[in-house]
Design a protein that fits this description.
Helix content: 55-70%
Strand content: under 5%
Radius of gyration: 21 Å
Bound molecules: benzoyl coenzyme A
Shape: globular
Order of helices and strands: HHHHHHHHHHHEEHHH
């Protein structure tokens, strides 16, 4: 079903309807689920919102790894709340995708069969407690940079989901930075752990924004439809500019000697991530891809009896209602 929805190319959109639709987008109007929309617009949204939902759900795994080993009860409670928030984000986003006529089951099956992607970042392991700081600071920081503009995206249910998600992501980023401060201003061993986490998460965080603009296949059309508000490179640059002073405050070094202020462009220069590595990771060959999908497959299989029970109950109730009428 998902493949059918996303692969079939839109060939016969009425040109008049298309022009009227584009005029609504250009006027900054929100598109709602029952409004007419081009098939390509709907497919792009299903792809992007679905990938985003999967990222929130899979994103629980690297952090869930540390819940039982958090250093204090307070840190454990905070991390637990953050991971639960990510589950909530996934659910708002699946709901937004469902308004486009695709079911949550279809999306999940597409994730498990490898037809749909989730963010590359979650295919890297979280090896130490400092990684919880780096994930909150850098990964949630990159997510906010991408998602704040999406509050103004043209599709109403997606834009509205983003408002709440962004509020929660800001808290997540602050808690990550708080862990980094504790570690960076702690003992030399703690500071070394913080630096090591920054070293490992820097380039994968830059990759979260997607390939460089020259290799981004969807950006031009998605920006014309206001599904995306900025190019990948624009957001990556803003992220670097925001993060470098934060690293300086922590007394940590960005693992890229090319990071220097460029007064002419009004931003920091930086080295591109290894794009070969990025494309390998999104093809399924990253360090943790197999482990992440296996964990989601197990959760899906373990939950089958709950879904079956609920469906049987719903069918029984529907049958009883028909009999009563
Ligand atoms: N990872 O033409 P492009 C979070 C794919 S989670 C994997 O530039 P587009 C959080 C792309 O899908 C953050 N794949 O694509 C959760 C396309 O392949 P397909 C998730 C990537 O869509 C828990 C191909 O590369 N955020 O916040 O215009 C804890 C070409 O790329 C990635 C979102 O999903 C990647 N990094 O732009 C903490 C935000 N990058 O689909 C935090 C919404 C690219 O043709 N999504 N690809 O097979 C977006 O803004 C856009 O989809 C992207 C990519 C900027 C990610």
């Amino acid at each position: 079903m998902y493949a059918q929805m996303v692969k079939s190319e839109a060939t016969n959109d009425d040109p008049e309807k298309l022009a009227a639709f584009q005029a609504r987008i250009d006027a900054g109007e929100k598109i709602e689920p029952k409004d007419w929309m081009p098939e390509g617009y709907r497919k792009t949204l299903v792809r992007q919102i679905g990938q985003h939902a999967h990222s929130e759900i899979v994103g629980q795994l690297p952090e869930g790894n540390w819940i039982t080993r958090a250093p204090t009860l307070e840190r454990k409670a905070i991390l637990l709340a953050k991971v639960q928030d990510e589950a909530g984000h996934g659910l708002y986003l699946y709901c937004a995708a469902e308004t486009l006529g695709v079911s949550r089951d279809d999306l999940t099956e597409a994730l498990l069969s490898g037809k749909m992607k989730y963010s590359s970042i979650f295919n890297y392991p979280t090896l130490t407690w400092a990684d919880m700081g780096a994930v909150g600071w850098l990964v949630d920081g990159a997510a906010i940079m991408n998602q704040v503009p999406l509050q103004r995206t043209s599709f109403g249910p997606y834009a509205r989901a983003m408002v709440r998600i962004c509020k929660e992501e800001s808290f997540h980023q602050r808690q990550g930075y708080d862990i980094m401060m504790k570690m960076a201003f702690g003992t030399p061993a703690q500071k070394a752990m913080a630096q090591d986490a920054l070293n490992r998460f820097w380039y994968p965080s830059l990759m979260m924004f997607g390939p460089s603009d020259k290799d981004s296949v969807h950006s031009a059309q998605s920006m014309a439809w206001r599904i995306k508000m900025n190019t990948n490179d624009e957001l990556r640059q803003k992220f670097v500019d925001q993060t470098v002073p934060q690293a300086e405050y922590l007394g940590l070094t960005i693992p890229d000697p090319a990071v220097v202020w460029n007064a002419e462009k009004g931003g920091y220069d930086y080295s591109e991530p290894d794009w070969t590595e990025f494309f390998e990771v999104i093809k399924g060959n990253g360090p943790c891809n197999a482990e992440r999908i296996a964990a989601r497959q197990k959760a899906w299989d373990d939950g089958a009896w709950v879904r079956d029970g609920l469906m049987a109950h719903a069918r029984k109730r529907a049958g009883a209602q028909v009999a009563a009428e």
